[in-house]
Design goal:
389 residues, alpha/beta, TIM Barrel, 12 strands
Length: 389
């Protein structure tokens, strides 16, 4: 996994919103990094898996009892949703207990997985005994050799394909393949889409590999895609590829300011804002953080399970700073302060921003590169609008 897959949880279907102090948003979602370990060793990931005698180790795992107590308190702040991720969430030895328990507490669930551990019986459990509604499965190529080389474990491709089929056969109709795109596989995008068609997948998301985690080494070696390539990829994905596939949704993750107008209209629900001001991440260690970034950037750890969620959500200085800095897009630094769409993406991944340069609210690499190369759309700038008036 990357730092996270942006997901803005839906508003609750019923009930009154919680009464919170002015300037404090509703706590909408827990991002649950159920384990700090993984059964794969992907080249781009921020997780550092540990293998003992050739076998993967789950490492730290969230305590189900402490989590349950945190959910009870967080629901008074508006919690309705949780994302099950990791590491590899299915690697948690009490995964079923956690998924069933959250469901019993009325929490809507989504999951990110590499799919390797998905069996027909587990897929049936998820479909019929939990509130898991949406599952993203990582798949980076259409052949075993290339996928396994990127994911670091032989046999991963075949196991992931079996997992996709298990979800389809269990009745899931809302599954997604996430492809981590880099120079080595960008030419195989259409082949991955064909594979998705063959295995009952409803959407495919293309996430360009970024310089976070071990992805930084890929970036330094020139393996990541630059803005000119990504803009060309956008034209292909939403043009010829979209016309040639039966897949319901194709999504390329680039900042909204860099998308063409037709693509903006089509992807209105994927504005680029991860909803960070409504999220708390809970790590396998039981620590509460901005998100998974807390595993490597310790200054973004806010507390731990057992602490008061209410006190943390209302008063933690890092959360107060983030809310204040994100409040007015006109005050964002660099190209973001000149961008008419900054209120939609709110500088993108603030965790990645912090890791890259020490500040949460700052232009991301792609927008900076576009501005430096003269490829940032002039009509998306505040200054251009002023010049035209």
């Amino acid at each position: 996994m990357t730092l996270c897959e942006p997901l803005i949880p839906p508003e609750p279907r019923s009930g009154s919103p919680p009464r919170l102090p002015e300037g404090v948003p509703r706590l909408r979602s827990f991002y649950l990094y159920l384990t700090s370990g993984c059964n794969l060793a992907c080249r781009h990931c921020w997780v550092k898996p540990r293998f003992i005698d050739g076998r993967p180790d789950p490492q730290e795992c969230i305590d189900p009892e402490l989590l349950s107590s945190a959910v009870v308190e967080a629901k008074t702040l508006g919690l309705t949703h949780a994302k099950l991720t990791g590491g590899e969430p299915l690697f948690h030895p009490r995964f079923r207990e956690i998924a069933a328990g959250l469901s019993d507490q009325g929490i809507e669930l989504d999951m990110e997985t590499n799919g390797v551990l998905l069996t027909p019986e587990l897929a049936h459990f998820l479909r019929h005994e939990t509130k898991v509604d949406f599952i993203s499965v990582s798949l980076d190529d259409d052949d075993a050799q290339s996928h396994d080389a990127f994911r670091g474990v032989r046999g991963a491709f075949d196991a992931t394909i079996r997992g996709l089929d298990a979800l389809r056969d269990a009745g899931f109709r809302n599954t997604q393949i996430i492809m981590s795109v880099h120079r080595g596989n960008a030419g195989k995008i259409e082949r991955v889409v064909r594979l998705a068609e063959a295995h009952g997948v409803s959407s495919v998301k293309f996430n360009p590999v970024t310089g976070s985690g071990r992805g930084r080494q890929m970036e330094e070696r020139g393996e990541t895609l630059g803005i000119p390539e990504l803009l060309g990829l956008e034209k292909f994905v939403y043009g010829p590829l979209k016309e040639r596939t039966s897949i319901q949704r194709l999504i390329l993750s680039i900042p909204p300011a860099l998308r063409s107008f037709p693509v903006l209209m089509e992807t209105a629900g994927c504005a680029g804002d991860c909803g960070v001001t409504g999220v708390l991440g809970i790590l396998g260690t039981g620590e509460i953080a901005m998100c998974g970034i807390g595993q490597t950037i310790r200054s973004l750890v806010y507390g731990k399970l057992g602490d008061s969620i209410t006190e943390l959500w209302l008063n933690h200085p890092k959360l107060k700073t983030l809310r204040r800095e994100l409040a007015d897009p006109r005050n964002y630094p660099g190209i973001c302060g000149d961008c008419l769409m900054a209120g939609s993406c709110r500088t993108g991944c603030v965790a990645g921003n912090y890791q890259e340069g020490g500040g949460m609210v700052r232009p991301g690499r792609l927008c900076r590169e576009a501005a430096d190369l003269g490829l940032f759309p002039a009509h998306r700038r505040r200054s251009w609008k002023k010049d035209q008036s």
